[in-house]
Amino acid sequence: MLSAAFTVFTLLATIAPSWSQQIADPPTLASLYSLTTSTSIPFPTATLSNSDAQSFIVSGWSLSKGKIQQGASNIAFVADPFPNKPAPTSTTNSTGPVLQVTYPAGQFGSETSGLQLYSLWNTSDNSGFQSMLVTYEVAFDSDFNFVKGGKLPGLRGGPDPDGCSGGSAANGSNCFSTRLMWRKEAAGEVYAYIPTPNNMCSNSNFKCNDDGFGTSIDRGSFSFAAGQWNRVSLIVRLNQPLTTANGEVVLYYNNVKALDEQILQYRSSSDITIGGLWLSTFFGGGDSSWAPSSDVHAYFRNFELFGSSAPSNLTGQQVSAASRHTNIVFSTSAWGAAAVALAVAALGSLL
């Protein structure tokens, strides 16, 4: 028995050289990445109808341009639909109203499906954040049809608050965005509008587009579960120097590391810092084949942000010309996350 357990620990040591960083809750991640400033998005103490939900968000969420960008009619604060199904790694279950977002039948894209808003968070001296963690919980209806894919909240930054979405490309000085996406059968990824230098698109962990749309990062490295709460924690560390591709994106799913990419260039201009939470969620995709056939809902709660004015300190390549092309994806991060999960399960069966 002990010999078998030792074998499992040896496997873990092989696939996860830094075990403490493979499983971590959001406060632990904030400490690991020296993100010493934090804030949370306020939620009401009682359920709110659509009109009251709009008023609550506009008055208390520090919105860009003072308004909900799109989908204001698709929201309400409702009772927790899954009070007995917390995220698998949670030690406690939150109570209180949650944000319900409706995705209407037959609709796709940010203009008619879901919700889009930008909640700004500034440093105390207005110097701008250069590293940030956003963490939240998301749940989907038990019969949620993921169809071909859709967007989920993440982070954005830069002087252009409207670009880096919908085919408006990132050029290194206008903006960047890093959202999550679900794909077919609930496969997860980070979906980023960022420059793609140093032949990055030949790396099988990245799936690039030729038409100005975003880059899929480590597609399938985790999968969402419907009918329960899912915890996601997304870390962005901007590249520094500006001519070095040492930016980082990290994603933990239910407190287990799913991906970590460290060769990114978010910016070529110091005008780009991280602006805050981009609550952008909708089906799509650019045509009706992405749309749900009936009204469906996602639910959100426990939005927290942790930040630092320090950028990435990783070693990286000097930036060369950008290269964009579509390629076949094979995610080494997915293999790593799966191996960790299997090892944990094996250990549990032995003890």
From TrEMBL:
Keywords: Lyase, Signal. GO terms for molecular function: lyase activity. The keyword Signal applies. It comes from the Eukaryota. InterPro entries: Polysacc_lyase_14. Residues 1-20 form the signal peptide. Residues 92-303 form the Polysaccharide lyase domain. This is Polysaccharide Lyase Family 14 protein.
